[in-house]
Amino acid sequence: METLWAFLLLTVGLALTSPVENSKASLMYPYGTDQGDTKNPKSDDGASSEITITVPFTFYGKKYHSLYVNNNGVISFGMNVSQYTPDPFPLDRATPFVAPYWADVNNVISGDVLWRQTQDPALLSRATADINLYFPEIPFTSTWALIATWDHVAYFGSASKKVNTFQAVLIANGELSFIMLNYDDIQWTTGIASGAKPRTGLGGTPAQAGFDSGDKINYYNIPGSRTPDILKIAETTNVRTPGRWMFQVDEFVTGVTTEKSDCLE
Ligand SMILES: *[C@@H]1O[C@H](CO)[C@@H](O)[C@H](O)[C@H]1NC(C)=O
């Protein structure tokens, strides 16, 4: 009994003294091969093969039935992406992008790019609760989610131990669609072919975050994109939760604190 109390006190004590950084990890939806994730091959500028999705994802009025999870921090529709230096949205090409952190990842050096689509009831309840919390005026129940995670990924040309961990969660019910971007830990912004220093992963043309529907009208660049400030993205938010950005994208709406508009740029 005394041992049990000692254990409980120790557990509570540890929970109370946990470092603040741990709060970011709790934003992340569960990921890993033990969760049923598929890992992208180790390949610089690589991608998944085409992923057929079981519930269509509506992106500004167009329904998509497949997508690609690209190593360089982008989910794309219609075509895979190997471009490693980001361009600002809107892009000239009509390939829709969801870009949690578009930059020159090299998963050969370190880290993994993982994804799964899910209709697991517990996970969908969590997704539904998150959407209902951040978009209270929209009646919504999730029937599908895709979780793509860049777990401890290095940058091209790295001569450091710096790695980034971030995630994009697509949440949909066939008609309504949402993007959730979660930033656990961001330590670098740029690969050396985009102008970074090998030892810092900083400088040059830094990462771009946001989305581009491909129609030249509906897109969003998260503030700090392609500037050194993007390193601090895990401290920013549009939904009062640092490290998380959320958007409704079946038609243009951003988080609870922002007015509806066609274009925020
Ligand atoms: C993209 O798709 C093309 C055609 O299917 C394939 O040849 C190429 O290797 C793919 N690129 C990546 C980055 O996976």
Automatic annotation (TrEMBL):
Q: Where is the NIDO domain?
A: 100-252
One Pfam match? NIDO
Does Disulfide bond appear among the keywords? no
Q: Which keywords does this Swiss-Prot/TrEMBL entry list?
A: Signal
Where does the record locate the signal sequence feature?
A: 1-17
- Entry-linked SMART domains: NIDO
Q: Which domain of life is it from?
A: Eukaryota
In its UniProt entry, what is this protein called? NIDO domain-containing protein
**Origin species:** Phrynosoma platyrhinos (Desert horned lizard)
